[in-house]
Amino acid sequence: MKLELRSFRTMVARRIFVLFVLCALLPISALATVSYIHVRSQLLKQSRSNLRQESMSTAMSIYYRLSLLRAEMRMAASSLASGFEMSEPGVSKPIADVIKERFDTALLVRSDGRLDPLFGEIGNFLEITELEKRHLLSGKALLVCRRGENGSPARLFMSTAWPDGKAHALLIGEIKPSYLWEATERLASGIEVCVLDRRDGTVLVSTVPDIASHLPQFLNQVRAAQLGNLEWQQGDRTFVGGYWSLFTKSNFFHPELLFMAFQSSDEVFAPIANFTKMFPAILMLSLALVFVLSSRLIRRNLVPIEILKNATRGIADGGFGHKVEIRSGDEFESLGASFNEMSAKLKESQDLLVKAAKLSTMGQMAAGIMHEVKQPLTAISGLVQLAMANQTSPEGKERLETVMMAVDRLDGILARFKSFSHMSSEVMQPVSPRDILDEVIQLLEHHLLMSKTQCRVEHEEDLPFIMGDIQSLEQVFSNLLMNALDALESKEDGARLIQVRTYSSEEKVFVEVEDNGCGIPEEIQHTIFDPFFTTKSPEKGTGLGMAIVESILHKHQASIHLESEVGTGTRFTLIFPAPSGPGTRTINPSEKIQRSPDEH
Questions:
Q1: To the nearest whole number, what is the mean pLDDT of the chain?
Q2: Which domain covers residue 448, as residue numbers?
Q3: Phi and psi dihedrals of 237, rounded to 5?
């Protein structure tokens, strides 16, 4: 369908075109401002998140190295303890090599106060307080930070204790900065790092020059939070940072180390510089894309709308059941499917209304027939019976019996018409379809035996009750079973089978009556419920049986479904709604059906 002027006759096409024009005429400055603010916000948010992750990752890496140092010092202390027990003089070379790879200096402090340097010069002796000594004696390591002199970097010491006779000796070592801070050298390009002693603000390591002058800014922003972001100025440069506080008191007695990662705002917003250059080209490409998509959308939407409009006109003209075919792969296709479903339901509703009108007409006609014919027929029946009682001639009695058979047949026809009239009194109550079926099958047992037909019955345990009229349901099940028996007449003896099944599912109760008889041709399956339609001889049926069945099921808010194949058999499935609520019961096989007084 080409995009022509006539394509804009529909309201949808005009709306799409107006939307395209509005998008094309939006002020570029406003669009650029919104985009710039959004991108800047996202970049800042992403940068802050990355910096928090970098500070956390650095902290965990350094904590792992401290834990490794603690383990190596314990191993060295254990070896030294064994050496003292064997009264070996001095310190063996292998023990010193274990800790020499991680420490610049190492010193033994014996229990009697003597100092034995292992390697390096530790300088001024490290004083140990009573609290720190108790921490060491508990089997843990001690981490101590000492400020550097004359601007030199701060120094970190670690010590541990082990039994030395009746007292304890100490092993003290100064950690190599190159080993401990190696993790700070592996950060991404453009990211600076700083590690502080949060207790007194001592800078342990920093890749940012002149960081000490900005310590008050840091400590004021981080306060007591363990994880967060901060910003600070250094000259004309702005830095964005993330920090993470590592709590080390439990294992190293040191209160806390603060890890901070920084990135210059120029590097954070570097992508925006390229974005501002590329924005005009992106905008022109977007405008072209909007034009192409709008044109295609107009073409794609008009055809389904036109099809649906014509179809609705057909429905309005009474063409129920009309279907549309839309294959657009979007909501219009779903709308077309919904339209087809609606059209089918309207057709079904129309058919039901026609059937209801027919049944209503039949009811009115039946009421008239019952009123006009029943009384004379009763009189005739009584007179014939009286004549038969007084008749002595065999020939006359035989003729009267023939008349009586005709009267009985006419009375049976009137009984069938009664189902269409309003003269029958129906009592809706919770009933057991299982019990009703068993009673009907028992009543038909003679017919089953005479026709040599096997009847298999399968009942679901705890089948729910349904709301129904017992007498009406007996008539439904009896009609279906008698029809099944008639359909089996052409079958050989011993091969005739009727199967009755009851079961429930999703608050519905199902009753199936299936036979392996001659089957119903497909071309007449839709007419079997019409009044007076029958394939039987006049002596066997009037064509009212299935119409009565459908009428009764309609009053019970139930439905009936037919499946049949010629030469294979027929299955009728009745679907009843199961009552819900406090009155709902399940079947007790020993419970008897309670009939109303007029049903006996």
A1: 77
A2: 427-599
A3: -105, 140
